[in-house]
Amino acid sequence: MARLGAEALSEAEGLELLDRAVGEGAPGLLVPVRLSSPAICAQAQAGTLPALLRALVPATVRRQAAAGAAGGGAPINRLTGLSSAEREEYVADLVRREVAGVLGHATPDAVQATQPFTELGFDSLTAVELRNRLAAVTGLRLPATLIFDHPTSAALADRILNDLVGDSAEMPANSTRTVGMAHDEPIAIVGMGCRFPGGVVSPEGLWEVVLSGADVISEFPVDRGWDVEG
Questions:
Q1: DSSP notation for 144-191
Q2: 3-class SS at 185?
C-alpha cells in the first residue's frame, strides 16, 4: 500500500476522519487517506499511476513521464534481432522481474515460472498493480483480469510475447516478406456457409433454389410478438 502511495493511518486518525466525514454531511464519496507525494510522483514517472490520481501530480512530472514513455523504446524494439528462443527468454525474464517487484522480492529468482499467482500471494490490488507495471514497460493495453486469465508467469509471458510480436515471432529481424502470385492462378474457395429462407443452409441448397425457381417466401413468424395487424 505504501508503494502505491497510501500511507497508514493510526486508529485515532481514522476515527477523527470518520467523525469529520459524518459531520460534513456533504453529498458524494469521501475517502479518508494519507497520500505520499513521493510515491505518487514515482508512479507517474513510471507510467503506472491510476488515472484517478493523475490530477494530484504536478504538470511538470506528467510531462516528464509522457516524454519518457515516448522515447523509452518498447520491448518490441529490443526483440528485434533475437531468435524465437531468445525472445521467449527475454519476455519471461521481464514478466518475472515485474512480478518480483510487485511482491517485494529483491530478485526474480524467488518467482517460479509455473507457480500460480494465487500461491505467490497475489490479490486483486496487486493484480492491478502488476497489470499497470506490465502495461507501462510494454506499451500494451492489458485488461485488469490479466493474471486471472493467465494464472502463472509462464502463461502471462506467452500472452505478452504474442501481443508484442504476434505471428512475426518466427520472422528474422528487419525482414521483408514478398508474396508472389501468378496472374493466372485460380481462386480456391475452401469453405462457405449461409442461411436463407426455405431452410437453405449451404451453397448447394441455395443453388437448388435458384435452379428450380422455388418460392421460399413465408408468412410472418408468430412467436416474436410482432404487431402484424398494426
A1: TTHHHHS-BHHHHHHHHHHHHHGGGGGSPTT--------TTPPP----
A2: coil
**What is the rounded average pLDDT of the residues 81-106?**
88
Give the residue range(s) of CATH 1.10.1200.10 domains in the chain: 75-170
C-alpha cell at 211: 435452379
Best CA proximity match to 7, nearest among 29, 30, 28, 37: 37
As a whole-number percent, the residues of the chain with pLDDT over 90 amount to 11
Q: Which of 224, 105, 87, 228 is nearest to 158 (CA)?
A: 87
> Amino acid identity, residue 193?
G
| pLDDT tens column, 174-207 | 444 444 455 555 666 667 778 888 788 888 888 8
CA–CA dist 102, 41 (Å, integer): 17
* Whole-angstrom distance, CA of residue 201 vs CA of residue 163: 36
Beta bridge pairs of residue 196:
200
Cα–Cα distance, 209 to 161 (Å, whole number): 49
pLDDT at 95: 92
Full-model pTM: 0.52
| Euclidean distance between the first and the last CA atom of the chain, given in angstroms as a whole number | 63
What is the CATH code for 75-170?
A: 1.10.1200.10
